[in-house]
Design goal:
This protein is α+β, with helices and mostly antiparallel strands and about 750 residues long. Among the domains are: about 30-305, no CATH class; about 365-455, no CATH class; about 465-600, no CATH class. Helix content is about 10%, strand content about 20%. It is built from nine helices and 27 strands. It has helices at about 30-40, 155-160, 175-180, 240-250, 275-290, 510-520, 655-665, 690-695, 730; strands at about 45-50, 55, 85-90, 95-100, 110-120, 125-135, 140, 200-205, 215, 230, 300, 305-310, 370-375, 390, 420-425, 435, 450-455, 465, 470-480, 490, 495-500, 500-505, 540-545, 560-565, 570-575, 580-585, 595-600. The strands form seven sheets. A six-stranded mixed beta sheet has the order 2-3-4-5-6-8. Strand 5 and strand 6 form a beta hairpin. The longest helix has 14 residues, at about 275-290. It is elongated and about 125 Å long. The chain starts with about 30 loop residues before the first helix and ends in an 18-residue tail after the last helix.
Length: about 750
Amino acid sequence: MAGRIRSTAAHCLLVLTLTWTDGVAAETLEVFSQKCDAATGITVPDFDCDLGTLVPTTHFTGGYPNGDCDRPNRLNSECDPGSRFQVLTDNGSAYAVAHCRKTGLGPGQFSDIAVIQTNRDNGATCFYQALASSLDGDVEAPSKGTGTLPWLTPAQTEAIDCVRCHDNGPIVRSPYLAQLDAGPDALPGAGDDSFNSNEPYCFVGADFASWKVFEVEVDGNVCVSCHRLGVSNRSGGVSGTAINFAIRSTAPTESHKNPHSSDSPIWMPPWGVLFDQGYADSATEISNCAKRIDEDPLPNAADCRIAEYTTNATDADCDEDLNGNDNCPYDFNPDQDDLDFDGVGDVCDPDIDNDGCNNEDDQHPESSTARSGMAFYSATCIGTNDPNTYAYEGGVDSDSDGLVNCADYDDDNDGLCDDNVILPENAALGVPSGGCVGPDPCPLTFGSVCFTFIDCPEQPIWFLRCQFNPGCYEFFVKLFEVINPDPFVTEFDDISIVNQSLYLFPTAGMPLMEMGNLLAGIGHGGGGGASKSGAGSDVELRLELWRRGDPQAGVEDTYEATIAEYHSSDAVLGDLSSGAALLVELIDPSSSSIRLQPSWGSGAGVGDAPVDSDGDDWPDPFDNCLNVPNDQIDTDGDHFGNRCDADYDNDGTVDDDDEETLVRALGANCDGSFDPDLDSDDDCVIGSSELALLYAQLDGPPGPSGVICSPGQGAVCPTALPEPGSLTLLCFGVAGFVALCRHRGDRRRS
């Protein structure tokens, strides 16, 4: 390190004369304070030293700096009247404290201002230092930079080697500060003899990564029976709680301390008053052990044990993600968020969205795509659709002004800002002469006409969309014998009505032929149609349209209309050896003849070849991934194949929750903890294929699937139902359905 602070004193945070050469710090104070705030969960605020609590200097004689008192400052062995201590913030698990040392200066002036910011749960700790011959006690937070106090840079503070003294915890809890045991500025841990016994300890920031502290133990030694004693890799064999403070705290006398008495008790043990040779011997034993800090390997025996307890070596940023697995090893980010999945966490990624623009230059730093125009949807697109289209912003310069779109606030240079902002002329931002006002309806096209037509395929649905009535309602068809005291009733849930034709889809496990036979009267009353075989009595049959109720709400199924009433002898049955649906048509609307023929789906005519958009040999009405060839694997049973389903929580949208689920599972395989719902390509590994699918569907629905009209595709059946009979218009006013709706109210069943 080029810059180095040197102290004439042997103990940390006392600097009387300073020399250092100018050097470049690894981190600015502003960046360091941001990391500290993130790691500790608290912020160091502005403060006024004079509002802190005065540290008592009782029975002071002789004047500063050579006077004596009951409880001198142990870091520099001085009695320093006028020094103040302040708890800046404390939320129970994290706190920040300030110590303003007076060093004989007048009102409102201090020469040494030290701040410690720490979190007891994860051990994250930060040291801030301001040093000068005279400092104003009205202090601005270190987050505002080195020019405000002036605060030292992190590199300069590191060079002071605070760790030489602060090696058993963030605060040296000597009698000097332990006097403050009540009130808002009570020393954290006051009255708790076990404080600093087992709390974690970790130094935040790249400049402090080399600091290490070690716990010193000797079996049976009374000095470590309540709390730990430490030594650091910067001790030099002379400083620290185990090497130096242990000896001083149990010695017969101390520099600038009044003789031991009830007014000026010995430092250790906490309950002691006068010197005790037994405790002094125990301290010497600990000190001698600590002086072996430079041995390799470190001692590990009953008579001397030294073990590191700082976590910086394995977890440099104190976020409990070990360095080798941490996507930002020097930046606190326990969530490991990585928006662009490039292996570099968001908090340390200069280009979070990986579009080629650094975050500070990126108009949309957390999205590699941006609005590009307006979308116009066909009538077959159900539900609420995004009115915008989007395009990738990286590597594209739409207006050839030398700025790629992600850094250009007016991509087409038409004076309309891309987003909803007003900006003055600024060539660095791509804003032309005269400035720009947004939002631009066509950010990539000069002008205001940039519609993209989006045509949604007709969805094979099991309910009708009633465009003359609000909402969608679930319908089903009933088939039964008209005259029969014990009628044979069959229900068909999977229906669709297109133009003048009704399409019935078989229920699970029912072949198309069997369904055709039922509709033609074969199997429950005999009969014989024009294309039927076998003989038997003629059966009068009826097809009725019903609206599904809601049992939980106490709403019963409701009759809506009679579709057809016919004799089995008048049913014409086509060749049902192949097909996906049964096409039901009236041969003549004025008669009762009915034709039953095979079809490959809603709207398809007889003999029409099945549509297979993705060429995977699964016709669209039966393909659970319409646009991606797949083998129909659907492990979560939501009718979206795994190959096109990144909606892992089945809420209809691929969102942040799904992204978190996938990221946490990356690398999993069939040999370990494995969720097959996440495996899009059935290769038994959660990896790049799954990431690509999720990123492609993020903020949109899964699919599309041809199997059902699902919430993910925008169609939802609301629970609210219209009043009974309100859909009679279905039979008398809707084009394309009139021929199939013959309302026979006088003979209907309810």
